[in-house]
Write a structure and sequence with these properties.
The protein is of the alpha+beta class. It contains three helices and five strands, in the order E-E-H-H-E-H-E-E. The chain has one domain: GTP Cyclohydrolase I, domain 2, CATH 3.30.1130.10. The chain has a five-stranded mixed sheet. The longest helix is centred in the C-terminal third of the chain and has 15 residues. The chain is elongated. The two termini are 16 Å apart. The mean pLDDT is 93.
Length: 118
């Protein structure tokens, strides 16, 4: 299986357990790996034969602007399901990092991987 990866994608969303934390958008950082069969695109050199990563980034940014999450786990799951369903990916791995949320901590987050159920 082939992988399309999007590294350190900065997005704005409302995220946090306390309600006050979800009142203002904050920056989170995403690493996304998308499993897809790229053999046709490798031969055709045509974007129609692959997943347009610009469309993925735009769709993820839009979805996170439209939704609010308490947990990074729920946010990561939402992104995985969106990419699996809307972009017909075979599998997706999403790392969500919430930077500088606690003193002395560079970031916290989760890594979630989901596959298309046949």
């Amino acid at each position: 299986m082939d992988i399309i990866f999007l590294s350190e994608v900065k997005v704005q969303t409302k995220l946090g357990v306390p309600e006050w934390e979800r009142m203002v958008e904050q920056t989170i950082i995403l690493d996304i790996e998308i499993g897809y069969d790229l053999s046709k695109a490798c031969k055709s050199d045509n974007v129609a034969d692959t997943i347009d990563y610009g469309e993925v980034v735009e769709r993820v940014r839009t979805a996170l602007k439209e939704n609010s999450f308490q947990l990074v786990e729920a946010l990561a799951e939402h992104i995985c399901q969106l990419i699996l369903k809307e972009f017909n990916a075979l599998n997706v791995k999403v790392k969500v990092a919430k930077p500088s949320i606690l003193p002395g901590l560079k970031a916290l987050g989760v890594v979630i991987e989901r596959s298309k159920i046949s």
